[in-house]
């Protein structure tokens, strides 16, 4: 499917969370299971694309038809892997829930408690992978995801513009949708349009998403 547009195209998909280490036994992470991104990667492969899947720490088997899987842990590692994989890619789809912050430093030994005293963690902002890609002169067609708990359209359109994306797939998270679940529901936005992809399991939703991406890709890059 995908009307042959994606046949032989190089597509990079990121999936899953990132883990930002605090010390040898603790980290800051998030609830992403990787299921949405893995489904998107599989759907892109079914549409004939040559897919590289950059995966954060998840416990999922590699879907059929994926050309290459790169496993990473932190946002910095995901940034490096995505940058390398997209050097000659046609499309990048960022379904990963990349940690926005990391601890300023990773303690070499396990942190100890100190008689009830408060502990403050200093955090540094991670680089934005999508924004970095869109700032490059020649870059792939860029599709972001937006995980929002409120004001979905406003925040999604803001990310579309601010990160310089071609499309953004917005999902309202919480209420049994989005993170960790089998189902999702997406509203897709691009500069002059939008489309509803109503609640469905992630495999079906991913195929619909890939068809829409193929349509837009053909329209602007065809
Ligand atoms: O993995 P599942 O359990 O199946 O859940 C799926 C999902 C809810 C994680 C997925 O559908 C989703 O919404 N992924 C994006 C989650 C997210 O981090 O959204 P955000 O609004 O914080 O980021 C917006 C976009 O910028 C995303 O495409 C993200 O990959 C990208 N980003 C964010 C931070 C950063 N430093 N670099 C980035 O590229």
Automatic annotation (TrEMBL):
Residues of the full protein shown: 180 to 401 of 401
Region (Phosphopantothenate--cysteine ligase): 11-222
Pathways involved: Cofactor biosynthesis; coenzyme A biosynthesis; CoA from (R)-pantothenate: step 2/5; Cofactor biosynthesis; coenzyme A biosynthesis; CoA from (R)-pantothenate: step 3/5
Ribonucleoprotein found in the keyword field: no
Protein name in UniProt: Coenzyme A biosynthesis bifunctional protein CoaBC
Domain DNA/pantothenate metabolism flavoprotein C-terminal intervals: 6-215
Functional description taken from the UniProt entry: Catalyzes two steps in the biosynthesis of coenzyme A. In the first step cysteine is conjugated to 4'-phosphopantothenate to form 4-phosphopantothenoylcysteine, in the latter compound is decarboxylated to form 4'-phosphopantotheine. Catalyzes two sequential steps in the biosynthesis of coenzyme A. In the first step cysteine is conjugated to 4'-phosphopantothenate to form 4-phosphopantothenoylcysteine. In the second step the latter compound is decarboxylated to form 4'-phosphopantotheine.
Record keyword Magnesium present: yes
Binding site for CTP: 100, 110, 127-130, 145, 159, 163
Cofactor binding comment, as recorded: Binds 1 FMN per subunit.
Enzyme Commission designation: 4.1.1.36, 6.3.2.5
Taxonomic source organism: Dyella jejuensis
Gene: coaBC
Cofactor entry: FMN; Mg(2+)
Catalytic activity from the UniProt record: (R)-4'-phosphopantothenate + L-cysteine + CTP = N-[(R)-4-phosphopantothenoyl]-L-cysteine + CMP + diphosphate + H(+); N-[(R)-4-phosphopantothenoyl]-L-cysteine + H(+) = (R)-4'-phosphopantetheine + CO2
Annotated GO MF terms: phosphopantothenate--cysteine ligase activity; phosphopantothenoylcysteine decarboxylase activity
Domain of life: Bacteria
Keywords: Decarboxylase, Flavoprotein, FMN, Ligase, Lyase, Magnesium, Metal-binding, Multifunctional enzyme
Record family assignment: In the C-terminal section; belongs to the PPC synthetase family. In the N-terminal section; belongs to the HFCD (homo-oligomeric flavin containing Cys decarboxylase) superfamily.
């Amino acid at each position: 499917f995908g009307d042959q547009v994606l046949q032989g195209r190089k597509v990079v998909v990121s999936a899953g969370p990132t883990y930002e280490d605090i010390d040898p036994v603790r980290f800051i992470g998030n609830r992403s299971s990787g299921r949405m991104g893995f489904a998107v990667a599989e759907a892109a492969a079914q549409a004939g694309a040559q897919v590289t899947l950059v995966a954060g720490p998840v416990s999922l088997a590699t879907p059929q038809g994926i050309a290459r899987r790169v496993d990473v842990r932190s946002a910095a590692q995901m940034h490096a892997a995505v940058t390398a994989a997209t050097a000659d890619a046609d499309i990048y789809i960022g379904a990963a829930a990349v940690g926005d912050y990391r601890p300023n430093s990773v303690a070499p030994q396990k942190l100890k408690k100190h008689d009830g005293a408060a502990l403050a963690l200093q955090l540094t902002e991670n680089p934005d992978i999508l924004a970095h890609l869109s700032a490059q002169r020649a870059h792939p067609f860029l599709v972001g995801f937006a995980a929002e708990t409120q004001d979905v359209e406003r925040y999604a359109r803001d990310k579309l513009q601010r990160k310089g994306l071609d499309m953004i797939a917005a999902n309202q998270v919480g209420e049994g949708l989005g993170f960790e679940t089998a189902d999702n529901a997406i509203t897709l936005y691009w500069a002059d349009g939008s489309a509803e992809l109503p609640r469905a399991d992630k495999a079906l939703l991913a195929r619909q998403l890939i068809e829409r991406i193929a349509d837009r890709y053909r329209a602007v890059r065809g």
